[in-house]
Specification:
It contains five helices and five strands, in the order βαβααβαβαβ. It is α/β, with parallel strands linked by helices. The chain has a single domain, classed as HUPs (Rossmann fold, 3-Layer(aba) Sandwich), CATH 3.40.50.620. Strands 3-2-1-4-5 form a five-stranded parallel β-sheet, sandwiched between helices. α4 runs parallel beside α5. The longest helix is centred in the middle third of the chain and has 18 residues.
């Protein structure tokens, strides 16, 4: 069975990407791998590289919640599909490229919760387009 990978970050652009990916998965009779990525910002370590308390668990919980809320919000679009939720630590572009290594298609939104709001093609979608080993669909968003 083919797999379609889609990046999820809770943004309206990511929701559009999930809708597109779900439609493609239904057309291709493919599984849908919904990937959310988390990482601990350097600032959480106080700039010295050592954390007194490991904040990773909280970031991972937030990522899981994001994925669950997206799946609930888009429940109708996901009905009848084999959905594989994936939550991983790392940078979004790197993890999405890795997760799509065995995929038929990687789907990302053109604007998410990145640091460069307003760019036509964000840094994550650009990195995925350049480095993925499968076709990449970049879904535009009106938001």
């Amino acid at each position: 069975m083919d797999t379609i990978v889609v990046g999820v970050d809770g943004s309206p652009g990511a929701d559009e990407a999930v809708r597109f990916a779900a439609h493609e998965a239904a057309l291709r009779d493919a599984a849908l791998r919904m990937v959310t990525v988390w990482h601990v910002p350097t600032a959480a370590y106080g700039g010295i590289g050592v954390a007194v308390v490991d904040p990773g668990a909280e970031f991972e919980e937030d990522a899981n919640r994001c994925l669950e809320e997206t799946a609930k919000r888009l429940e109708a679009e996901l009905a009848g599909l084999k959905v594989e939720p994936v939550v991983r630590e790392g940078t979004a572009a790197r993890v999405l490229v890795e997760e799509s290594a065995d995929a038929a298609l990687l789907v990302v939104g053109s604007r998410g919760h990145g640091g460069f709001v307003g760019l036509l093609m964000g840094s994550v979608s650009g990195q995925c387009a350049h480095h993925a080993s499968c076709p990449v669909a970049i879904v535009p968003s009106d938001n």
